[in-house]
Amino acid sequence: MPDGRPWPKFSIVTPNYNFEKFLEITIRSVLLQGYPNLEYIVIDGGSTDGSVAIIRKYEKWLAHWISERDSGAADASNKGFRKATGELLAWLGSDDVYTPGALGVAASELRARPDCSVINGDFCPLDADRRVLKFVPTGQITLGRMLRYWVPCFMPPTPAIFFRRKLIDEFGGFTEGLVRTNDYDFWLRIIQKYSFHYVPHLFTETCVHPASMGGQGYSAYEAEASVVGRFYRGSPWHKHFWQLWMEESYHLTKRLGSSCFSAAWDAEVAGRNLRCWGWLLLAVVISPRYAFRAGALGVALRSLIGETRTKKLKQWLGRT
Fold first, then answer.
1. Ranges of each domain in the chain
2. Most buried by CB count within 10 Å: which residue of 68, 197, 240, 305?
3. pTM score, two decimals?
4. What is the pLDDT of residues 136-193, one digit of tens each?
5. Contacts of the segment 188-194: beta carbons below 8 A, 24+ positions apart
6. CATH number 3.30.450.20 is the correct assignment for the domain at 10-233
7. Phi, psi of 41 (to 5 degrees)
């Protein structure tokens, strides 16, 4: 390290299943880090594409690899964590890549903060052709933020998180009973006891494509995340319980009101005025704030007096 001390051993775990298209660039991004004390573990779930051939190509630089059937990504990840012997650990998906020097920065940050057990940084989402979609700094991860599953970016960016081995020893790894939020549950367990330290550095690039978790959209996470989030919300006597309950209720009614408003809009376009008014009334009853912000009055006027007269009325109101 810059201060003359030896670099701590860093164990990186990559689970893979049929991601031949992305796997090689992931492996190379780890091996080309130039980190002097690296332990890289790849756990393949019995891929039927060319993944195993790619792993064999780099096997002499891997500390351990295996290809066998498993019960999912969490099972594969935990197999890797159990094999890991490093002081520091991280998880990298087989469609993610580390930016140059990422492990050195992470190790230096954790070594400089002996009282810190887990750090998070930034990641950049890319499309399947590796073009930047939208970069948003991750920022500080808190329990309150993680429990608000209805807010964008509630999920910690696992490929850009680095932590000490003791967290695996204490919390056991990803939750194997969950399909999409096994890492989310793991971080929620950890943040009950340990604080995340945010490092404003771009550590990873994450590929978003139809086969990836991120590429399946937010709705794919929501059902599972809502159950997990409510579990960690605590009892009604917890100081944040009712605030979170009210925010969640507003989110759910807003979404339902939005569906009703969309149905009213479609009915108005189709000239089915009675049905339009029925959906509008339902939208206003369910979520009046959203309905009026979305333009319920305008839709009601158009269904009542027509598009042309509505425009004339707006013009007249504007002049007065």
1. 10-233, 241-319
2. 197
3. 0.79
4. 888 999 888 888 876 766 788 999 999 999 999 999 999 998 888 899 999 999 999 9
5. 188/143, 188/146, 188/147, 188/228, 188/229, 188/232, 190/117, 190/118, 190/163, 191/141, 191/142, 191/143, 191/146, 192/143, 192/232, 194/117, 194/118, 194/167
6. no
7. -125, 125
